[in-house]
């Protein structure tokens, strides 16, 4: 099977969420789901809000990114997480 790389857009629940702590939680979620975190970055949005992007590399498998995306959405400090790009490598 091929490997895939996905870009996941994560929105925190508020600007008060500690950015670095959330990045660590997201990285841990990726690693707990048998995938590799290839990068985590953030971009300012507006009024103190920011978006976090997580690059995930994993083997192509049934269910794809769904378990990782769901685990990210289940985090207390996450408003939403969604895959915005997906590509074979």
UniProtKB/TrEMBL annotation:
An MF annotation (GO) of this entry: translation elongation factor activity
Residues covered by the Translation elongation factor EF1B beta/delta subunit guanine nucleotide exchange domain: 3-89
Taxonomy of the source species: Archaea, Methanobacteriati, Methanobacteriota, Methanomada group, Methanococci
Alphabetical list of PANTHER family matching this protein: ELONGATION FACTOR 1-BETA (PTHR39647)
Keyword Protein biosynthesis applies: yes
Pfam families, per the entry: EF1_GNE
Name of the protein described by the UniProt record: Elongation factor 1-beta
Function of the protein: Promotes the exchange of GDP for GTP in EF-1-alpha/GDP, thus allowing the regeneration of EF-1-alpha/GTP that could then be used to form the ternary complex EF-1-alpha/GTP/AAtRNA.
InterPro entries membership: eEF-1beta-like_sf, EF1B_bsu/dsu_GNE, Transl_elong_EF1B/ribsomal_bS6, Transl_elong_EF1B_B_arc
Species in which this protein is naturally found: Methanococcus voltae (strain ATCC BAA-1334 / A3)
Entries under Gene3D superfamilies matching the protein: 3.30.70.60
Record carries keyword Protein biosynthesis: yes
Family recorded in the similarity comment: Belongs to the EF-1-beta/EF-1-delta family.
Residue stretches in coiled coil: none
Protein's gene: ef1b
Sorted UniProt keywords: Elongation factor, Protein biosynthesis
